[in-house]
Amino acid sequence: MPARDTILDVLCPMHAALSASGHITTAGPTLRKLYPDLTLPGLRFLELVEVSRPRGITGMEELLVHAGRKLHLRLRGGARTALKGVLMPDGQGGAVIDLSFGISVVEAVRDYRLTSADFAATDLTVEMLYLIEAQSAAMGEHRKLNARLQGARIAAEEQAFTDTLTGLRNRRALDQALGRCCAGGRPFALMQLDLDFFKAVNDTLGHAAGDFVLQKVAAILASETREEDLAARVGGDEFLILLPDTTDRKHLADIAARIITRLERPIRFDGQPCRISGSIGIAVAPAAGQIAPGRVMAEADAALYASKHAGRGRYSFYTRGAAPASGAAPAAE
Among this protein's residues, is 237 annotated catalytic? Predict the structure, then answer.
């Protein structure tokens, strides 16, 4: 027949048997786990655990007065884990007290690395642990799903604003960014670029060569603009570049000239040179006051027309109230 201590270890793994003086004679395996560095038998129970309710319990006599009633206790030192307990006399002047964590079981499991094996098989705490584990698993899957959905949403938005051939932004992205600049009244410049002689590349070398040239043009625009600028392909061989907070004409002229110079260098496709150039129209939005997106687009388009009319391979600024002023890129090396 199993000894009493063995029976208590199985049925009440957090029990403590107390002597008439209030010292621990035996302790259950889970209670011992809370004090891994101490040998509990021989220690005074109330030196390890304090009774918070009822108040005023300082010794074994007061504990026995409250036999059979629920006690609210707290571990001394460490994590100060809250406990519930019920004490019953053993008929020999001592008592047996059974302890539980109550609603603090989640913190206790974390702090003391407890498992279901540390509780009685019929303890509802075990069911709670299973529920918590299931909830944690469900929440983990929920977070993973949300992360995947968020990633898919970002990817879809990115795709919706990206030109699939060149990787530049598309007309939709340009319209939104331009609208924000215009509505915010911030100064900016808008460059409109149209490739010269691009149709000849398609006609003589085919559309694969044309697509290759467009990708090379996109790489040039990306390398000649800042991270905060927006380069977009808005048509077959038409590009727009939005440059926020950039209105200095000399700086804009330098950018346009570098782009045109690089475009005039032959692009080789399957051993064949593809020769193009570029015409650019530049509109500068004022530093104060709002301007309609349609108006600044029309101004950049008018400046582009002036560049083409002046002989292509050049840039022009739109000047309100005057004819667009043109400039040619330096001769290509």
Answer: yes
